[in-house]
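retry 2 of 3: previous attempt timed out while embedding D-glutamic acid. Reduced batch size to 1 and resubmitted. Inputs unchanged:
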Amino acid sequence: MSDPRPIGLFDSGIGGLTVLREVQARLPAESTIYIGDSARHPYGTRSDAEVRRFSEELSDELVERGVKAMIVACNTATAVALEHLRERHPAIPIIGVIRPGAAAAALATRTGRVGVLATVATVRSRAYFAAIKDENPGTRVIERAASELVPLIESGLTSAREISDAIHAAVGPFLVGDPGARIDTLLLGCTHFPLIRGAIVEALGAPIAVVDSAVATASFLQEVIAVNGLETPGSSRGTAADAGHRGHTAPTSEPVAPVHQIFTTGDPVAVDALAVRLFGESAPRTRQITLGSNRR
Ligand code: DGL
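retry 2 succeeded.
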């Protein structure tokens, strides 16, 4: 069985492109559709009801565009709306970024003390706290909200100098007290934050592992695609359900060249600048889209 339909991803803005990058690296034959809701970012300081409504609109748009699987490439939307979206679209697998990130952090810590830097809404949901405790109940989870970083990143101010003060203020509380009792792992619980990873590492200035959910989420997606027999035609991988037989050695059918599309509700030029940085000159040009009640 094979399925040429694209994989859909959405975020409140450009942050989810960090997840898209890992998805394309891990599943290079698959087509993708990305939608960033930059016109309405940030989500992390909004009410749960608003985040849920916007997430509905984004997921509906992706389903209308025919995706075969979806990643909610936004921690805030995952924390607030994942279960709801799964009920709304039962026919396609929908993956969030919180469980994969929690697993990565729980496996990275050696001292059992994990810090989570996320948005106000994600911290309020306690989703990371619960997911990390699920992985390892003995882990100490210290969560901090840093929603103020999101608009700075969204506006392109990602150079260490421009955003440095805000980053120092955000990570400073993780560095107070007895060094032997501090966190040894910091989980970037917002998909925007990997875009300033270098500056965060510099501000920490200590041997603290910095992890995010992008790689773990892409690897989980690969598993979900395989188990569901959703691999694109021409894929030479077997599925977990059918451990190979011909699948490992022979393409399931004629390969289809992957097509990548990026949409934004905001300014396409701003998104293009980042897309070229992440994907190179071959990045598709970003197109503007309207969602929900603003639709034509
Ligand atoms: N990138 C998003 C997240 O992972 C949301 C940031 C925001 O819009 O506040 O939480």
